[in-house]
Amino acid sequence: MKKSKIAEMLGIKYPVFQGGMAWVADAELAAAVSNAGGLGIIAAGNADGDYVRAQIRKAKELTDKPFGLNIMLLSPFVEEVAQIAAEEKVAVVTTGAGNPAKYMALWKEAGIKVIPVVPSITFAKIAVRNGATAVIAEGGESGGHIGELTTMALVPQVVDIVDIPVIAAGGIADGRGVAAAFALGADAVQLGTRFLSAKECNIHENYKKKVLKAGDTATVVTGRRLGHPVRSIKNQFAREYGKIEYTDISDQELDDFAAGRLRMAVVDGDEKNGCFLAGQIAAMVNEEQTCKEIIEDLMSDTERVLKEMAQYSE
Ligand code: TUI
Fold first, then answer.
1. Ramachandran bin of 46, using left for φ above 0, alpha for ψ from -120 to 50, beta for the remaining angles
2. Average pLDDT for consecutive 10-residue bins of the chain (314 residues)?
3. What gap in Å lies between CA 119 and CA 121, rounded to an integer?
4. For ligand 1, is residue 97 a contact (CB within 6 Å)?
5. What are the distances in angstroms from CA 160 to CA 141, 166, 202, 221?
6. CA geometry: angle 100, 65, 173, nearest 5 deg
7. CA 245, CA 223: separation in Å to the nearest integer?
8. Strands 144-145 and 92-96
9. Which member of 38, 88, 96, 218 lies 3.0 to 4.6 Å from 214 by CB, making a disulfide possible if both were Cys?
C-alpha cells in the first residue's frame, strides 16, 4: 500500500478518515473507526459545548488511538466548541461549512492538527496560509453541505496549489474510489455515507434502510437559494423544500421550514419529514458491516484495484 504522509503524521494505520457527520458521528462511531486503524471523527454539528466535551471524553475512554473533532462553523455554539477543542487537546480538528481562519492560532497553540474542508482553491490557499496540517478537498458528490465542484475536478486542482497533504472526499465508497483519489494526487480519503451503514453507527434503522436501498439517482440538492446547498435522499421533505425554495417565501420562513429536520431523520427515523443526508454513492452501500470490516474491505479492494491498474504502465 502507498505510504500516506498524513497517516504517518497522525499515527494512524490506514489513510482513511470517517466524515464528521452532524448528529451521526458520535464517540462510539469515531472510536470504532479509530480502533480499526482509520481516523474517527466526532461531529459537533449544532450541539452545545457540554455535549461535545462529553463526547470527546467518552471517545478517550473507548480508544487510545487518535481521533478528531469536526467543527461545523455555522453552529450557534461554534465559539464555545472551538474553545473546548483546545482545552481537551483533541488530536485533530476538521472544519466544515466555512472559513476557520480566526480559530486556527488557538488550535495550533494547543498542539492540534487542523484539517479544514475546502470547497475551492481560494479556501485551500487560505488554509495553507493559516498553518493547516492538511486539507480535505470535498466534492459535490458528498452528502450534506456541498461546494460547487466535483471531486474529480477539485482534488487535482487543490493538489497542484498546496504543499500539504490533501484528503479526497465525496463520491468514494470502495477501492476503485480510493485508487482514483490516489491517482488524482490525494494522500488519503474521507468517507461519510459508507459509514452510515456501520454496525457502530447509532442512527435510526429507517435511516440505515434508506441508505441501503438507495439507487443511483436517489439524492437531490436543495438549499442553493440560501447559499447552503445540501445533498439528501429524495423524500417528502426534500420535494416540499424544492417546491417552495423558489417561491416568494422569505429566507427566515425557508430556514424555519428546514430547522430540526436532520434530527428527525437521525433520531426519529421520520421517513417523510426528516432530512436524510447522503452522498451520490449511497447506491454502492449495500450491507451493514463493522467499522473494522469496512476499513479492511476498503483497503484490500484498493490494493486489488491498484495492482490491476499496473497493466496500464506495461
Ligand atoms: O460541512 C460539510 N457538510 C455538512 S455541514 C452540515 S450542517 C448544515 N446544514 C445545513 C446548512 C448548512 C450546514 C451538513 N453537512 N462538509 C464540509 C464542507 N465545507 N462542504 C463545503 C464546505 C465549505 C463551504 C464553504 C467550506 C468552506 C466554505 O467557505 C465559504 C465561505 O463563504 O465561508
1. alpha
2. 91 98 98 98 98 98 98 98 98 98 98 98 98 98 97 98 98 98 98 98 98 98 96 98 96 96 98 98 98 98 96 85
3. 7
4. yes
5. 21, 10, 38, 28
6. 70
7. 7
8. unpaired
9. 218
Q: How many other CB atoms are there within 10 angstroms of residue 308's CB atom?
A: 12
Would you say the pTM of this structure is higher than 0.70? yes
Using CA atoms, how far apart are residues 229 and 258, in angstroms rounded to an integer?
Answer: 12
Nearest-atom number in ligand 1 for the CA of 136 is: 17
**What is the 98 CA–ligand 1 centroid distance (Å)?**
6
Distance CA 30, CA 39 (A): 7
Separation CA 224–CA 236 (nearest Å): 18
304 alpha carbon to ligand 1 midpoint, in Å? 34
- Contact assessment for residue 142 and residue 152, using Cβ atoms and an 8 Å cutoff: no
Q: Which residue has the cell 486556527?
A: 104
CA 31 to chain centre: 15
Cell of 75: 453552529
137, 140, 129, 267: which is closest to 207 by C-alpha? 267
- Sketch out the chain's domains with CATH numbers: 5-201+287-313 (3.20.20.70), 219-277 (no CATH)
Cα 15 from chain centre: 14
Cα separation of 203 and 211, whole Å? 11
Where do we find the cell 459508507?
Answer: 194
Tens of pLDDT along 68-104?
999 999 999 999 999 999 999 999 999 999 999 999 9
Task: Write the pLDDT tens digit of every residue in 147-187.
Answer: 999 999 999 999 999 999 999 999 999 999 999 999 999 99
C-alpha closest to that of 158 among 194, 100, 115: 115
The answer, yes or no, to whether any atom of ligand 1 lies below 6 A from the CB of 74, is yes
